[in-house]
Amino acid sequence: MRPGGDPLASGVPFPEAARAALTRAQLRRNLHRATRTIRGKRGRVVAELPDWEELRAAGSAIKSHVLAHLPELLLRFEEAATAAGARVHWARDAAEACRIVVGLVRETGAREVVKVKSMLTQEIGLNEALAGAGITPIETDLAELIVQLAGDSPSHILVPAIHYNRREIRDIFRERMPGTGPELTDDPQALCEAARRYLRERFLSAKVAISGANFAVAETGTLVVLESEGNGRMCLTLPETLISVVGIEKLVPTFQDLEVFLQLLPRSSTGERMNPYTSLWTGVTPGDGPQNVHIVLVDNGRTAALADPVGRQALHCIRCSACLNVCPVYERVGGHAYGSVYPGPIGAILSPQLTGVAANRTLPFASTLCGACYDACPVRIDIPGVLVHLRRAAVAARPGPSAERTAMRAAAWAMGGGRRFGRVLRLAGRLTAPLRWALRGRRVRRLPWPLSAWTAARDAPLPPGESFRDWWARTREEA
Amino acid sequence: MRIGLFITCVNDLLYPGTGRAVVRLLERLGHRVGFPLEQTCCGQMHHNSGYRDLAVPLARRFAAAFRGYDAIVAPSGSCVAMVRDVHPRLVPEAAGTAARTYELSEFLIDVLGVTDVGARFPHRVTYHPSCHGLRLLRLGDRPLRLLRAVRDIELVELPGAEECCGFGGTFAVKNADVSGAMLADKCAAIRATGAEYVTAADNSCLTHIGGGLSRLGAPVTAVHYAEILAGRDA
After folding, report:
1. Contact call for B168 and A369, based on CB within 8 A
2. Does residue B163 sit at the A interface (CB-CB below 8 Å)?
3. Which residues form the Cysteine-rich domain (chain B) (predicted)?
């Protein structure tokens, strides 16, 4: 996936994109190492908390409450934020959100904006909209900057450049980062220093910053951003104008609710007890920090997801990416294969709901339903359950007859009676008899389509000839 | 106690030996086993592939077939998870049978209170905890406890045991490349143990794993743990 297309649906079916990703050996090595490292760190800091399960339950309960009372809470948030000096804007979809933000930046006359890492601004394609209006967006999170300079798109929610190693990053910096030359080495310290020098100038000259938010407190109108590098703190405090783009599901009812999420999020995402920087701001503080504070509340498909009693739990997501790091499918194929800014297990249930299943029909099937994601999720989203739920919708969205549907119906018919099933099993035993004779105990190495997909990587077993029920009838019922 | 064996459709066709092993094992422990012939399939393939409506009559059929049994035992973690977690949501009358359905190791340990089933298996074996048994049924180390009590068995730990093998039902065909990549890693881990046998609670996963090992020409046999407990070599 490259920037410029639909940020939530590349149009390439997952199996096809995954096949291409699997051939990239370097990508697989990077992913293997990176996901295992974060997985281990997360496991250790989660195990430290005796009340982790209670925290998960609390996080889930608070989010359920928010979704059940979303209209009131949104209005309360607007009221509190407005009273504190912020201007609140409402956007139905990506286009409206981009229009609002571009308009706000234009009002300031700025040609360049600094950005705090934000999933939502990627979801709505904000950088492309800004660039189209002649405004240069500068990503200031190190990994986001790498990806932006490379002209690429993030492949992980939290570690957007997880698919690059340091030699690749050195080359990107050498070629694309102003003020960086061929003397740059791939030493991590040197790479950081180069980025720091470049970004420092941008922070000091920027008039406008754009951020997302991890949480929005309805009671107080406060926005919260968690980050690791301090770039966020720079963006949130130095410029005159701060525009925060916030999904409507990001609300928590009260300030005290943050105590649950500020424990859940860092441990689940970076595997830290606490993230290095937590910034909270409530409207405008005269004489301190940005004096023009805007908040753009974005729906972009969330209300549609909310209407689905099973699917709506995807809106609990706090974007920690623990599910990506434990997912055996994500670990093999990386984020781009999902064709959406939201990759991995959460992306497989979120993207189809935000776009409508018809635009993302293969994502609900991009999982073995192994359940590792559900166990890792800090707000207990039953990702496998939602995947199965969305598969129904995906099957229903497929136009016309299909070989699969016919096969499923045939199987269901065969299983529609004990005697009938017995006859079908006997028939299968008889039809495979010549093969059994020919192979004499060896396994089947090649099957015709569609089972050729099975024998591409593995041999297939043959029925031994007598089904269990026939054995039972022969040895038990007659006795 | 009336014990009903739920063989599962995959075992009925491809692995009747696993079913015979369960019968032999339970009879050796002094129990009588019934096999209602009206049973067919739990409907998991239909349900998990997006054909819920086709799974509903199968759930109803299961509940009717096993209505008269005090305990329903199946040699499959995945199918038991389907019966227990999903059937009551498909058909209300399935709640009773769902609550009385056990995966073999649960039945042996939790219901019968048996860990040593009197088996002997003089081989090097590694155990793969298949995902639905591990994460949906929370079988924990039950199958391993049963295996540890087997005479002359040499159990070796499987590196990365709790990682999915990549089977995933229709996933193995729909996403054959990813499934194959996961399988390759699982097979490598199994071969690294030097085990002669890899065992698990699900023949569906073992079909995938065994098929991969066989394709690689690896000298490792995939076998359901029920067959080990039944004293396969004795």
Report:
1. yes
2. yes
3. 4-83, 125-209
